[in-house]
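PROTEIN DATA CARD
Card holder: RNA-binding protein
Chain length: 77
Origin: Sphingobium algorifonticola
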Amino acid sequence: MPKGPRGEKRPAAAIGLAVLVGKIATGEVEDERDEKLSSAAAEMGRAGGKKRAENMTPERRKEIAQKAAAKRWAKDS
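Structure generated from the sequence above:
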């Protein structure tokens, strides 16, 4: 049986996976994955982002935000 990204066993066939998802949604089967709220790597990433923002000038942060907004609004929805 194939394993997912966290090592959990999941059906390989699309129909088998759909049946499993349906059973989890209706409560027939308990999802055996351990949901961790945050991993150590994610926490370190957040800390790094905060530190980067602290070291950046307000003008540079504004520049980055304007560029991001322009990209968001330029997308065809």
